[in-house]
Design a protein that fits this description.
The complex is a heterodimer of chains A (about 190) and B (about 500).
Chain A: H1 31-53, H2 63-85, H3 94-98, H4 101-120, H5 122-138, H6 142-163, H7 175-188
Chain B: H1 2-12, H2 14-32, H3 38-48, H4 54-79, H5 88-99, H6 103-136, H7 141-158, H8 163-178, E1 180-181, E2 188-189, H9 203-219, H10 239-261, H11 267-281, H12 295-318, H13 324-335, H14 342-347, H15 349-371, H16 374-381, H17 385-404, H18 407-425, H19 431-453, H20 458-467, H21 469-485, H22 487-505
Antiparallel strand pairs in B: 1-2
Helix pairs in contact in B: 1-15, 2-4, 2-15, 3-4, 3-9, 3-13, 3-17, 4-5, 4-6, 4-12, 4-13, 4-15, 5-6, 5-12, 6-10, 6-12, 6-15, 7-8, 7-19, 7-21, 8-19, 9-17, 9-18, 10-11, 10-12, 11-12, 13-19, 17-18, 20-21
């Protein structure tokens, strides 16, 4: 197998984890900017690590952070130099292949989700999220969207609330009363 | 006797047995569904099983790991899409077999051989780990430090093409692990005077972000991909076929265990090396390699499952994970208050033997589920991505929130998710980041212990390395990786070659 193998034509389909995308000999749109960003961030962190304890002693709290950020900075600079030398991929654009509208939309959707989670509660927020995203991605009828999203939300909620006993923000729904109601039904009164 | 009892714990508790079964079953499907990965599943599961007892939590995760390594082979055979990195080699001969209409046979043999490989891995784990742990007691802090560096470098250099990107990723992970108050001196590190940074960044949030969110965001681009349906008939293989490939499987399983046991290398590398080995030793294959040779299927599949047992050896005895999944499992043990390392084997041998028992059980479940339910399987794998992706994102959010009941962790998860998304696009490996986060503490502690015991004298520190055989070997290994692959070396090599070429032209 080619050690530079990067997955199949669409880069990642299923071959996740340790297999990154990109091309071995070419530069993707935005790759250089990303590498420059990493360099700047690494140098910033190196400066910050120096601030922890300076060159006080080899065993100080700052020695490993400094070594680590130095390694980051050096490798980031090497990456920048290597990336800059490579020719651009001709067939790709930033808005089409790297950060398409759907990806941006979903990132925004996730931010909205986390902002609303506390005040609104898990069930309404998750329902909203699933309905919007499934409707957008599957482009099917409202009945399909609603039944799939609410159905899977119910399964997820039962699994986590009951089986894994994860406490999720309740928000506006009277969740505890609701659970107690069902417990009363099944057990035959509060025990 | 106690050992036997500990191994059998799993059978005396029906709920644990059930959890291993559920885990294995889920693992096979998670490994098989393109877009879902075992690493992702285990990271999300850590947070959900957070409130559980340690035994049930370990049971389900061990099951998922074992099932997942095997499950990846199915889509490799049926769709030419390796479901997991460890089944890349499987696709090379598995898919051509499926195209010839031999998918059933390929899956059947793969299952039996995977079971066999898994068994060898577990046996070696059970036999070797206690000795390794004894040996590990003699390790100096500097040896641990070197082992951690070696592990991160190996993951960075072997799993992908670019070592520099691997080094960056590993160092980045180590830096993330250092955020917060230093446990020894209580000095703030990388906190930028923000109170929320003082406690450090939750590694579960980092993991879910990197392996869950980034993967899901990436899959958005493949939303309309339809999978190809393959005809699958009889899958239980005949005994004679299995017998024929058993000797090869034994050899490649051995490769698998050894590669798996090296810190920093896991099933993916084991499978590729086994494939290479099979190619060398098989003189006259019935079908040429790459066109559907059974040997090309048997070798990687026995090796990657054998590597599972192997990977547990350094994880349990040294506290150093073999790959991204074991790194996450190691994190799970930390979360449950266990501290894997030689002391775990001495203080809580039951825990170790329980894991051996759980692995063994998962292996049996894998055989059973692997040879049945192929009809259901093809249905589930075809589940549309337009539903899977929103669900993964939802689970990721719940997972990140659940560990500390904190919204901040969700934001961390999002930040690392988006960051990981770009890393994937631009060819940065994610495995070393996780290894770095997990090993940061170990590396830091051991470096400081080592240098303090040498009275802060670098000269004495290196003298110590040179005079101890073990430290010396580890040190040389670290240097070798650098020398053979650093940009400096390639630059020198290139320049030399250019020089020669230039001279010739003149």
């Amino acid at each position: 197998m080619d050690p530079e193998f990067r997955g199949d034509s669409d880069h990642h389909d299923g071959t996740s984890d340790a297999i990154p995308g990109g091309y071995p000999k070419q530069r993707r749109p935005g790759e250089l900017v990303f590498a420059l960003f990493l360099t700047a961030a690494s140098l910033g962190l190196l400066y910050n690590a120096y601030g922890i304890a300076g060159f006080e002693s080899l065993s100080s709290a700052g020695s490993v952070p400094m070594a680590v950020t130095l390694a980051m900075s050096i490798s980031a600079i090497v990456i920048v130099i290597r990336t800059a030398r490579r020719p651009m991929v001709k067939t790709e654009t930033l808005s089409k292949d790297i950060l398409p509208g759907t990806a941006l939309f979903f990132i925004a959707l996730l931010v909205v989700f986390s902002v609303l989670l506390k005040p609104l509660g898990f069930v309404p927020t998750a329902a909203l999220f699933l309905i919007v995203s499934i409707k957008l991605l599957a482009r099917k009828s409202w009945i399909y969207t609603l039944s799939i999203s609410l159905g899977s939300l119910f399964v997820i909620w039962v699994t986590f609330r009951v089986v894994f006993t994860v406490l999720l923000p309740t928000g506006i729904l009277p969740e505890a009363e609701f659970l107690q109601f069902f417990r009363n039904l099944t057990v035959g009164g509060p025990s | 006797m106690d050992t036997m009892m500990a191994i059998l714990t799993i059978f005396t508790h029906p709920e644990l047995l059930l959890l291993v079964g559920v885990g294995t079953f889920a693992g096979i499907y998670i490994g098989a569904i393109p877009g879902l990965s075992v690493t992702m599943a285990v990271s999300i599961l850590i947070s959900f099983t957070f409130s559980w007892d340690v035994y049930p939590a370990i049971s389900i995760m061990v099951g998922i790991y074992m099932g997942g390594v095997f499950g990846g082979s199915r889509t490799a055979i049926l769709l030419n899409i390796p479901g997991a990195p460890s089944s890349i080699a499987t696709a090379m001969d598995g898919y051509p077999m499926a195209q010839r209409g031999e998918a059933g046979e390929a899956i059947g043999v793969t299952t039996v051989i995977s079971f066999f490989g898994g068994l060898i891995g577990i046996l070696v784990l059970a036999l070797a780990a206690p000795f390794v742990a004894d040996f590990a007691l003699t390790f100096q802090p500097r040896d641990y430090m070197l082992l951690a560096v070696l592990g991160i470098l190996l993951v960075g250099s072997l799993s992908t093409g670019s070592l520099v990107k691997g080094i960056f990723a590993g160092a980045f992970g180590l830096a993330i692990g250092a955020v917060g108050r230093d446990p020894l001196t209580f000095t703030e590190r990388f906190t930028f005077d923000l109170q929320i940074m003082e406690g450090g960044i939750s590694f579960v949030a980092v993991m879910i972000g990197m392996f869950g969110v980034s993967e899901a965001l990436l899959q958005l681009q493949n939303i309309d991909k339809k999978s190809v349906r393959q005809k699958v008939d009889k899958i239980i293989p005949s005994f004679s076929i299995v017998k024929k490939y058993l000797p090869l499987s034994l050899q490649t399983s051995t490769i698998g265990v050894v590669i798996g046991a090296l810190p920093g290398t896991g099933g993916d590398i084991a499978a590729l090396m086994a494939y290479d080995h099979a190619k060398r030793v098989t003189k006259n294959p019935e079908v040429p390699f790459g066109e559907g040779a059974m040997e090309g299927l048997v070798a990687p599949e026995s090796a990657n499952n054998a590597a599972v047992g192997g990977a547990f050896i350094p994880m349990m005895t040294l506290g150093i994970p073999g790959d991204a999944v074991t790194a996450i499992l190691l994190g799970a043990l930390f979360v449950h208050g266990l501290n894997p390392g030689p002391m775990l084997m001495i203080d809580q041998p039951d825990m170790f033997w329980f894991i051996v028992g759980a692995l063994f059980t998962a292996n049996i479940f894998m055989l059973v589920f692997g040879l049945t339910g192929i009809k259901v399987f093809t249905k589930i794998v075809e589940m549309p991505r337009s539903i899977i992706i929103p669900l993964i994102l939802l689970l990721s959010i719940v997972g990140a929130y659940a560990v500390n009941n904190s919204i901040t962790d969700i934001y961390w998860m999002l930040i690392f998710g988006v960051f990981g998304y770009f890393m994937r696009h631009y060819g940065y490996p994610l495995g070393p980041v996780i290894l770095g986060v997990i090993l940061s503490r170990l590396l830091d502690d051991n470096w400081r212990r080592a240098i303090i015991s040498e009275r802060e004298d670098l000269g004495r520190f290196f003298e110590g390395i040179l005079t101890s055989p073990l430290s010396f070997v580890l040190f040389v290994a670290v240097i070798m990786i650098f020398v053979s692959q650093t940009p400096l070396w390639t630059a020198v090599k290139k320049r030399l070659f250019k020089q020669v070429g230039h001279d010739q032209n003149v």
